[in-house]
Amino acid sequence: MADFVPASQASPVSTDAGDAIAEVLRPPITPVGRGFLVMLTLANMSWLLVGIPVLQLLVPDQVNALDPLHKVAMLGVISTLGGLAGIVSTLLSGALSDRTTSRLGRRRPWILGGALAVAVALVFLSSANSILLVAIGWSLMNFSGNVMYSVLNVIIPDRVPVQQRGIASAVAGLATSLSALLGLILVTFVLSASKQSFSVAYYTLLPIGLVLVGGFTLFYREPRLPREARPPFRLGAFLANFWVSPRRFPDFGFAWVTRFLVLLGYFVGIGYSNYYLRDVIHYARLFPGQSVDAGVTLLSAIALITSLFSVLLAGFASDRLGSRKPFVIMSSILLGLSLLTLAFVHNWPATIVAFVLIGIAFGAYSAVDSALVTQVLPRAEDRGKDMGVIGIALSLAQFIAPSLGALAISLFASNVDVGYTSLYLLAAVLTFLGALLVLPIKGVR
């Protein structure tokens, strides 16, 4: 636990601006301890445990209750607007945190602010009684959650040495799987116990995120950026700095593109899993008395169990071997194969097999690709901004995937099975392209 002390006991920053700037920007070389990894995992869970069940269960259920006839199109619009909000917040939060001179440090104010805004969005969604209000609530929530999550991602290049980034990214990736399972189980149970009361489910999630992220921000110590080290703010220069030339930094460019394609394929594939079980697998007919939400939760549990091994094994192995690219390529290909299973075999056993493979593939991918991107960042001064630009691959994929998925399904509206075949075939092709574009990266093995 040496990496964590209460903020009130943190050592004062050097009065010498040059020393203070060097402390903020120098590459991390001190190994982090288990306490750091545990607290970082819990902090990552603070957003994911709340955001994932809202996106996968509560918002689709609210949309289905409000407009069952146009649910696919409406969910696509809501998810797209939320994705756009996430793009904006991901870009701005990282860059602005690089310039923050608060006594709390550069990152903590943004993490805390994002968590509080997520809580406000949950309250808003709890009483949303129209498609418009659901769209506004989810957009606010995704904006705020991405502020918190994108700044948390900068903690790894800020504090973790290169030789530990595989396992650190694996532990952070493990938070994704754990959050998905715990959040989905919790919300499914609450909805069942409260007879589908959305407000009860939203209020149940509210304190969880605040407690988890609050613990991290209380004990995480980071150096303060001196005010004199912050350059004058000029809007034109600030906006221009978001462009990272792929000609000057080709590894960064390829890392961004491959992440975008794989994540786009992943989100296209899982974004309509609720409706896939409802309309193609006919889950409620196969298992009378069980809800589709229970089926989604079961599949998420299956993916979690398989990812528990792959995320830690891949992260640890990539650190030991000093190699990232083979793990990213193989996991991307395996993810594509799992999506092809969903595309061409429409039955419950095949769906289970597909989610076993999705868990293995995405667990390994999320661990090692996250470590890879931290090794291609162009400048120490812009870690937050550059991680934000990388984060746009995630936000942009979330933004495009719902509309792209809805289009793939609607092209064959007269045949639901064919529509979902086209959806998962498209998702698989995207992941295969992402795997291919890992090869040109030269600066990372």
Cα distance spanning the termini: 32 Å
Indicate the CATH class: Mainly Alpha
Tell me the number of helical segments per DSSP (H or I, 4 or more residues long): 16
CATH architecture tag:
Up-down Bundle
Class computed from helices, strands and strand pairing: mainly alpha
Characterize the main sheet. Answer: none
Description:
The chain has 445 residues and is mostly helical. The chain has a single domain, classed as Growth Hormone, Chain: A (Up-down Bundle), CATH 1.20.1250.20. The protein has 16 helices and no strands. Helix 2 packs antiparallel against helix 5 and helix 9 runs antiparallel to helix 16. The N terminus is likely disordered.
Write the SSE topology:
Elements: H1 17-25, H2 34-66, H3 71-98, H4 108-126, H5 131-159, H6 165-193, H7 198-219, H8 235-240, H9 250-270, H10 273-281, H11 283-286, H12 292-321, H13 325-344, H14 348-374, H15 383-410, H16 416-436
Helix pairs in contact: 2-3, 2-5, 2-6, 2-7, 3-5, 3-15, 4-5, 4-7, 5-15, 6-7, 6-12, 6-14, 9-13, 9-14, 9-15, 9-16, 10-12, 12-14, 13-14, 13-16, 15-16
Structure characteristics:
transmembrane, globular, 445 residues, mainly alpha, disordered N terminus, single chain, 16 helices, Growth Hormone, Chain: A
Short description:
GO terms for molecular function: transmembrane transporter activity. This protein is mostly helical and 445 residues long.
